[in-house]
Every structure is written in C-alpha cells, then in structure tokens.
Amino acid sequence: MSRKMTTGVVSLLSVAALSAGTATANAHSAPAAAKAPAAAAANCGDWNRAVAVPWKWQKLNDGCGHFGRGGLRMGYSWAVFKGTKVCVKAKGFVNGKDKWYDLGCGKSGSRTVPWGNVAAMKEIQVKGTATFNWK
C-alpha cells in the first residue's frame, strides 16, 4: 500500500469515527472504517487489566476523560481473576479538588465516590497479590 493510500485510510477512519455511520465511497477501506469506531468506543467502558504488588501502592488510570456534573458519583469496580485479594483506593473530587477514598480489600467490589462537576480520568491506587480487572 502506498503512503498516499495509507494516509487516505487514516483520514477515512478519522472521519468515520467523528460521523459514526457515514458511508464511505471506497469499498476497500469500508470494513476498516466500520470496525474502528466500535473498537475505539469500547475502550473507555471496558475492563482494564492490572497487576497489584504487595509491597507498595501502585497508581493506575483508565486513560479516558469522564465529564461530571453537580452531584455526580463515579463508579469503580474490580474483580480478581488470579491471586488472593487487592486493596483499592479511588480518586474522587470534593469542590473540584481531588481526594482519595479507601474502597477496601477483597477479591471483588464495586463502590461510588463523589465526582461532581469535574472532567478527569478515573484513577485507582492498588496493593495486593493479584492480577485483576477494574473499571
């Protein structure tokens, strides 16, 4: 594939991602353009995989911007699939300032923390002996 063709496909993917569902004129790039928005959209709602170590708190973020509003509470969940347990702290916000909340320890859990009118990435701190998923 020529460099010019590659650039054209990237442009089609960008346009497709922004206009979600717009048909493409080039039949050869249509399957790639159709798959890209679904893959990109799924990342922010999907589970994130991580490993917790017992000797220190490790900070992780989900890489996605979350837009809040007054009174919003942000949900955090985790589930260990290999190992014993994980201890979790989650970032929330009070009057626009970040604050860490202790969510507890265990093989799985789900909690909410105050978020409010803030745009930020979800972050957790973890410690334990486990490989786990979180969102």
Give an account of the 3D structure.
With 135 residues, the chain is α+β, with helices and mostly antiparallel strands. 23% of the residues lie in helices and 47% in strands. The chain contains 2 helices and 8 strands. A hairpin with a 2-residue loop joins strand 4 (73-94) and strand 5. Helix 1 (3-19) packs across helix 2 (30-43). Mean pLDDT is 77; it is low at 1-42.
State the main characteristics.
single chain; 135 residues; alpha+beta; disordered N terminus
Helix content estimate: 10-25%
Share in β-strands: over 45%
Oligomer: single chain
Number of helices, where a helix is a run of at least 4 consecutive DSSP H or I residues: 2
Distance between the termini: 38 Å
Radius of gyration, in Å, reads 19 Å
User: What is the overall shape?
Assistant: globular
Number of strands: 8
Largest sheet: 6 strands, antiparallel
Structural class, from secondary structure content?
A: alpha+beta
Mean pLDDT: 77
- Low-confidence residue ranges: 1-42
Order of helices and strands: HHEEEEEEEE
Summarize the structure in short.
The chain is globular, with a radius of gyration of 19 Å. The protein has helices at residues 3-19, 30-43; strands spanning 48-52, 58-61, 66-67, 73-94, 97-106, 108-114, 119-120, 123-134. The strands form 2 sheets. Strands 1, 2, 4, 5, 6 and 8 form a 6-stranded antiparallel β-sheet that branches. Strands 3-7 form a two-stranded antiparallel ribbon.
